[in-house]
Give the backbone structure.
Amino acid sequence: MTKLISPGAATRTVKRSPLRGSAKNFIPRKLIAHQVAGHLALDFCNTAGEHRAERPDELWRDWESFLRWAAQAGVIGPESYFELLRYPEPLAEIIRFRETIYRVGLAIADARPISAHDIEFIRERVNAPRPAIEFRNHAIRWHPARLHASAQLCAVFTGEALSLFCSPMAERIGACEGGNCGWLFLDQSRGKRRRWCDMNDCGNREKARRYYEKQKGL
């Protein structure tokens, strides 16, 4: 399960004012990953499909897809998207941050011991410099520096994650039970009954599986 819009699906775009010296006038709106977690740090983790699998499906295929996800999540605005697109950075360190945060979140969801090494990794980086702030059209967003966007945005996600893990809300972290999905979410249901990242995705898959098993047993 990758929760990614299929390659043949129509791509919606949003118009923006052209940047000087740039021919790009549209931001692709094709979803990188559905935001179903209820918390930015967990949505950050949910950018790999089949995350419990030995080899998850990486949804950030390049720098553009990471920036597009950040824009879709409301972390950066269109101006930052187009500005940073011209200054690509490797994704390896971003993915390392993501996987560290994911391991801690999954351990909490599964009620397993948390790796002290992972917590130390997060703690050591939580005070790293964050981006500047921009205010446009009554919205406040992060505005990363051109050559430090990766590190600055990772500091944002790390801070969000540690704040969540150290709060009572950590007890509400759950993991999708759909196969190898493993996507994380905040379970706000009474009695913590939520089992799926999205009832319309993994939930329906499980219902279909149960129906098939029932029919096969008739």
Notes: The beta strands are 13-15, 26-28, 48-49, 57-58, 132-136, 139-143, 173-175, 184-186. The longest strand covers residues 132-136. The CA atoms of residues 202 and 208 lie 10 Å apart.
